[in-house]
Structure formats: structure tokens, C-alpha cells
Design a protein that fits this description.
CATH architecture of the largest domain: 3-Layer(aba) Sandwich
Largest sheet: 11 strands, mixed
Strand content: 25-35%
Strand order of the largest sheet: 18-19-20-22-21-25-26-31-32-35-34
Structural class: mainly beta
CATH superfamily of the largest domain: Alpha/Beta hydrolase fold, catalytic domain
CATH topology of the largest domain: Rossmann fold
Shape: elongated
Number of domains: 4
């Protein structure tokens, strides 16, 4: 009697010219409206378990009309929809797939469609194919809400243990030259075998080289390579200097690429190891398996499985990768560390995303230490543009994919349009998650956290991120940050000798958030979605909530495009009695009172657990400046934190600097003031003014509805003490 073959899940691909199980079975009409697959190779009567139409496209720019066009593909007269969580393929009803026949799709709209890469994948019950390769050594390790699945790939694509970026990019470019290999990761609540693979959840498909941190490179590394060569190669140094010290392409290509380090090991993954990171949605035991797809045929007969692993939901924690060698470039003593943060929704729009962070720990830093998050205006993490405090831990994120350090639309990297879904603050969420972790892991003083953005989009990003999160930040440094991006046109002629119009930062923002006139909505954590351009307007947000004490804002630089919206924002801060100092004179390229370790100055040190004075109406304030695009606010006045006294019956604060200014103490911890309460004040100059003693003055002021009192026209001849007591005490 002839043995009956055991049927298992067979997964195969039908496509056009290329590496498919059934090539040359797809035809596309000349007008691109009809796609037909010849299914004669599918056994008649085969039990079809599922099918997917896999499509690829060049994503339309977020500010193009095509970004708003929904992809429409029909089969059997019904519109197909991309399936979650990847939204990169259309789920095809199994009832439409008939062995021995054909299947036709109608394409009504598909911006950026790459027709020739389209293929149909069918899963059906059949006999296992012979001779297909299989992966080995599948392991699963869970840590802090993330499960790290690793496996040995069927071939080692890059022979070198530490290839350069030039070598790695060439390997990535030629991945499918000889054969097309993909790895698929499955999860189930039960051990996975060939017999029950159809019941397991397919989590993802990844390309070879997934164990390499291909995004983990920085311009600082390339600059370090350039500087090292300049010290020994005079001709090279002359060439670099003639090009204004811009980094040559060869230096970028020479940056070494490393493999990931995952929890449970201090060493990088072995060469030839694949990696996928899963975020389980609930607690329980997860079983994992990995299969390989070679030229459009999946080896489902031999899924390589890992033992069960206990899991729980969570966002995970950053994982230390290495200590970076930057001896030539980095001129501050200390350790420069590299971390990777793996994310999934809601911290990113797709699963298995990873993000690099640079962490600099100064030599001899005391714990708990201040922390500064540096947004660099560059897609790759690096050190800040200006000198920084030597007692402060620096962290800098890699904003990938580029999101203006805010976030992007849910549809990014998928087959969905910007009409479907919302803009989400993914980058804000993961930066907040990193900072929460850093407080404990890096020994940070949570009351002394600063947000910095140097120029361009990073300056705007730091302004909005920092000022929107007063529960996290004590200080915000920004240079030319835009408080109201919607006030600027995408193109504008600068006040300069150039006659042509230039792209403003709004031009770049529209390529992330869509055109202003579309009014796309953004998700607001804890609130209803709103127009993203209205949300990114700090002026009304500050005015509407004067009860919220914002971080101390240090604003530098002239308005590169138009000073008027910046002036309105500074006026709104003054009206809401928020702490701010600004200097926008010609040539001011750094925020005022920025740190300068080279001169032994430590500059601003504001703490969220201590009182802070709000200055307004300073005698040196002005708006307009040279060409009407600059100004100054409270520049030249500060306070001595050591001289502050905060008791239930008395409050004292020493103001330093010069000029006259109105002073509103805020964040009083013990000297509580009730709305409408009468408060006695006394002002004592601690230095002579123009060679003469300054008589003390006193009076009474009534607290407003927020419980705030303002002592007006305080003369500050170097140092002045302000004293508040209960009226009549």
C-alpha cells in the first residue's frame, strides 16, 4: 500500500521576472490597471489557508499631493486593505484563490507603485519541498517587556568582523544578487512545529544582516577619522582645509559598523546572527520559531524553535552597546557611551524599530548629576555645537526616521496614505522613556534636566519639547527656535544680498507633517487629536495656562526669517510670568548664559525643586534690533540661588546683575501665598549705585488669582535682596 504523504503548510510566491517559486506568472497591463497571476502551478483543489498581495513603492513626500491619495487595489470587486501591524501587503480572501486558474487584481490608485516588484504569496496545505535550507540556534531572551529572538543565518553575508560603512553599504546593496533570502519569525502560546505552524502568529519578515547596527554611526566618528588622517597626511589636510573642513565622503565610508549587543551579554552578537525584538502585548509564556524563505519558497517543514520564555508587556530599556573611541576629536575628559533603544507602537509606528543614543559621562562627575539632552539638527546623534558644562551628563538621540524630533504620520513606511491615521509624537514618547530610564540608570538629578537645540529644526524641536514638558525640564536652550512654525511660509526671501527665495524650516517641516493647508491632526497624549500646526504653536499654549510654570528659557539668535512671531511669544511669556532670558543681537549664535567650561563658568543652573524668579520689564529690554529681527529680554539680570530663603513666614531672594526689573517669585515651597492675600515686601540693595548708597524701600502687594505677587521696578546695582513677609507680621 502506498504511504499517504503528510500535508503541512506550504508558502510560495508567484511573480514576474525575478527570484520567486513561480516566476513569470504575473502580467501587468500597459496602463498598469490590471495585474494577473497565472495559478496553474497551484494544485487544483488545494486548501488555501491565506494569501497576500505584496507590493512596494517609492513613498511620496509628505508634502506632495500623492501623499493624500489612498492606495486602492480591488479583487473580486472589493477593495483590499493592508494588514497590520506592517501594512505592507494586501490581505487576499482565500476564497478568491483557485488552484489551476488565475487571479486578477484591479489597481485604481497607487502613488509610487514599483510594479515589477509585486508578487502574490499563497499559503496552502501540501507536501513539503525537499532541499530547502533551515536556520539553527534559535534563542529567545526576555527583558523589561521585550523579547530578543536571535538565530544563526543560513549564510554569512559579510566576512569581516568589523566592516566599514562603505563595505556594509555595498553588502546591503547586493543582498539579492545571488539569491533572495528572508527570515520569518513566528510566535505561539504552544511549542511550534511544522504541524501547527499555521496556528502560530507570524510576527515579521526580516532581511539578512539584521544583527548589525547599520544606523549606529555619527558624523563625529567620520570627523574623528578625518582629523586623525590630517595629523599624518599633509596633502589630505590641505585638501580638507580648502573645502572648509567639511567631512569628505571617504571619512564617512571608513566608519566601522558594529553588531548589536542584547540583554544577557556584554559582547556583540556573533557574525551571521539574525535579530528580531518583539514587544508582547500581555503576560504569559511565548514560544518562537524562525523559518527561512529562499527565492520565494518558505521552508515550513523545518521551523527552528526556541524554548518557551516568560514574558510581560513593557517598553523595554536602552541597552549599552560599547564605549566609543573618540580620542582625536573629543576634547572633554570622560566616557562616551553608545546605547540602543528598541521600540514598537506607541513609541514608533512599526514594530522592531531601533534608535541609537550617544551618552557622554564627564570624568569625575558627581552623582546625582545634571543631565542635558542635546538635539543636534542632524539625523545622526553627536555632541552639542557649543561648549557645555563639565559637571553634566550629555545624551543625544538619533532622530531616525527624520521627524523634526517630534514624530511622524502613522502611515510612514506603509501602503497607507496620510488621510488614514494621525501624526503621532513618537519621538517625544521615546525621548521621555529614555530620560525616565536615565534618571536611575545614569544617576541623574531629576530636578536638573536641560533640553538643548542648536539651530534650525533642532532649535525649534528643543523649544517645543522642553516647554511642553515642565514636569521634566528645568532649562531650555534654543537658538532661533520657532515658537509658531505656521507663521512662516515654506519659501521666503531673506534680508540679505541674495535675491532668490530660500527654503525656511517650514519647508522641511511640511515634508514631515504635510502641507499647512491640509491641517492634518496629531494625537495629543491625554487629549483629543488637533491640527498639528495649531498644536505646534507655543504662544497661545503659554497664554492659556499661566498657572503652569514652564522651564527657564534661554533664547538666542536673531529671527532668521521673521522676528515678529518670536517677539509675540516673548511677550506672551512675560504676560504669563514665565522665566525667560533672550539675546537676539547681530552675531548672537548661542543662547545667553550658555555654559562655557573654557572660562570656568557654569552658567545657568536651575532646579525644579527650588524657587525661581520671573523677571519682566527689564530696563535693557528691546524688540526689533538691527533690521527689526532681534531683541533682548531680561539679559543682564539673574539671581543667586544660594541666597534664597523659603520659610512659612518669610521668603528672601538675591537678584544679581544690573538695571531695573520687575520680579515675580514662583515655585515657592514653604512660603505659600493665597490668591488675594496682602504680602509685605522690602527691597535692599547690597551694593552702591553710581557711588552712592541705595535706600531700602518697602510696601505691600496683593496676590493675583494664581497666588503670585510681583515687586516692580527693583533696582539691581550688582546685588539686591528682596524680602517677602505676611502683611502685618
Amino acid at each position: 500500500m502506498k504511504a499517504v504523504a503528510t500535508l503541512i503548510l506550504i508558502v510560495a510566491q508567484w511573480g514576474g521576472e525575478g527570484r520567486y517559486a513561480h516566476p513569470n506568472t504575473m502580467t501587468i497591463s500597459e496602463d498598469g490597471k490590471t495585474v494577473r497571476f497565472d495559478l496553474s502551478a497551484l494544485p487544483a483543489g488545494a486548501k488555501v489557508r491565506g494569501a497576500r498581495l505584496v507590493c512596494f513603492r517609492e513613498p511620496p513626500a509628505a508634502d506632495s499631493d500623492e501623499a493624500m491619495v489612498n492606495v486602492e487595489v480591488l479583487a473580486g470587486g472589493k477593495r483590499l486593505t493592508p494588514g497590520p501591524p506592517w501594512y505592507d501587503a494586501f490581505d487576499v480572501p482565500a476564497g478568491l484563490v483557485k488552484g489551476g486558474g488565475a487571479l486578477t487584481f484591479r489597481v485604481k490608485a497607487f502613488p509610487g507603485w514599483i510594479r515589477e516588484k509585486t508578487f502574490l504569496e499563497i499559503a496552502y496545505a501540501g507536501e513539503a519541498a525537499r532541499g530547502l535550507p533551515a536556520v539553527k540556534d534559535v534563542r529567545a531572551v526576555h527583558a523589561h517587556g521585550q523579547t530578543f529572538i536571535t538565530w544563526r543565518e543560513i549564510e554569512t553575508v559579510v566576512a569581516k568582523d568589523r566592516p566599514t560603512w562603505g563595505e556594509m553599504s555595498a553588502a546591503l546593496e547586493g543582498l539579492d544578487a545571488e539569491r533572495r533570502v528572508r527570515y520569518r519569525i513566528y510566535r505561539s502560546a504552544e511549542p511550534i512545529t511544522a504541524g501547527n505552524l499555521a496556528r502560530a502568529t507570524r510576527l515579521a519578515e526580516v532581511r539578512p544582516l539584521s544583527g548589525w547596527n547599520v544606523n549606529g554611526r555619527s558624523p563625529d566618528q567620520a570627523f574623528n577619522i578625518m582629523r586623525a588622517r590630517m595629523l599624518t597626511d599633509l596633502d589630505y589636510a590641505k585638501t580638507v582645509s580648502r573645502n572648509h573642513y567639511s567631512i569628505p565622503a571617504g571619512a564617512h565610508e571608513a566608519v566601522v559598523i558594529d553588531r548589536f549587543v542584547v540583554p544577557g551579554s556584554k559582547d556583540p552578537l556573533a557574525n551571521g546572527t539574525g535579530l528580531y525584538v518583539h514587544h508582547p502585548g500581555k503576560a504569559g509564556t511565548g514560544h518562537y520559531a524562525v523559518t527561512v524563505v529562499v527565492d520565494g519558497r518558505e521552508n515550513t517543514a523545518a521551523p527552528a524553535a526556541a524554548g518557551g520564555v516568560g514574558e510581560k508587556p513593557g517598553t523595554g530599556r536602552p541597552v549599552l552597546q560599547r564605549e566609543m573611541d573618540m580620542e582625536v576629536l573629543f576634547d572633554y575628559a570622560g566616557r562616551r557611551l553608545q546605547y540602543v533603544q528598541w521600540t514598537a507602537p506607541p513609541l514608533s509606528n512599526l514594530p522592531n524599530r531601533y534608535h541609537n543614543w550617544s551618552v557622554f559621562v564627564p570624568e569625575g562627575v558627581s552623582r546625582p548629576a545634571p543631565l542635558e539632552i542635546v538635539l543636534t539638527g542632524n539625523a545622526m546623534y553627536r555632541r552639542p555645537r557649543w561648549p557645555h558644562r563639565t559637571d553634566t551628563v550629555l545624551v543625544s538621540p538619533h532622530d531616525a526616521p527624520g521627524s523634526a524630533y517630534y514624530g511622524h504620520h502613522e502611515s510612514r513606511g506603509t501602503l497607507r496614505s496620510m488621510r488614514e491615521g494621525l501624526i503621532q509624537p513618537y519621538t517625544w514618547r521615546r525621548m521621555l522613556a529614555f530620560l525616565e530610564w536615565a534618571v536611575e540608570a545614569l544617576g541623574i538629578d531629576a530636578t536638573r534636566v536641560t533640553c538643548t537645540g542648536d539651530r534650525g529644526l533642532s532649535a525649534t524641536a528643543a523649544l517645543h519639547f522642553g516647554m511642553r514638558h515642565p514636569e521634566v525640564f528645568s532649562v531650555v536652550f534654543t537658538c532661533k527656535g520657532m515658537p509658531t512654525p505656521s507663521a512662516f511660509p515654506p519659501m521666503k526671501k531673506l534680508r540679505s544680498w541674495h535675491s532668490r527665495k530660500s527654503k525656511t524650516p517650514v519647508w522641511h517641516l511640511q515634508r514631515v507633517f504635510g502641507r499647512k493647508e491640509w491641517g492634518l491632526k496629531t494625537a495629543v497624549d491625554g487629549g483629543e487629536p488637533v491640527n498639528v500646526w495649531e498644536f505646534l504653536d507655543l504662544t497661545p499654549a503659554v497664554a492659556a495656562h499661566p498657572e503652569v510654570l514652564r522651564p527657564m528659557l534661554s533664547y538666542g539668535g536673531r529671527g532668521g526669517w521673521d522676528w515678529a512671531p518670536i517677539g509675540k511669544f516673548l511677550d506672551a511669556l512675560a504676560a504669563a510670568r514665565q522665566p525667560v532670558v533672550s539675546e537676539g543681537t547681530w552675531g548672537a549664535v548661542t543662547p545667553p548664559l550658555v555654559k562655557n567650561p573654557g572660562r570656568g563658568q557654569f552658567g545657568i543652573d536651575v532646579r525644579r525643586d527650588r524657587p525661581v524668579p520671573v523677571f519682566s520689564g527689564h530696563s535693557g529690554d528691546y524688540q526689533g534690533g538691527r533690521n527689526g529681527d532681534g531683541g533682548a529680554t531680561n539679559h543682564g539680570v539673574w539671581w543667586d540661588d544660594a541666597g534664597t530663603v523659603d520659610r512659612p513666614d518669610r521668603f528672601e531672594m538675591v537678584v544679581t546683575g544690573g538695571g531695573t526689573v520687575n520680579v515675580t517669585p514662583r515655585r515657592l515651597r514653604k512660603f505659600k501665598i493665597k490668591p488675594g492675600e496682602a504680602i509685605a515686601y522690602e527691597v535692599r540693595a547690597l551694593a552702591r549705585y553710581r557711588g552712592k548708597d541705595v535706600p531700602a524701600r518697602s510696601g505691600t502687594v496683593t496676590a493675583d488669582k494664581l497666588g503670585l505677587v510681583t515687586v516692580e521696578k527693583v533696582l539691581v546695582p550688582g546685588r539686591t535682596r528682596i524680602i517677602l513677609t505676611r502683611s502685618g507680621s
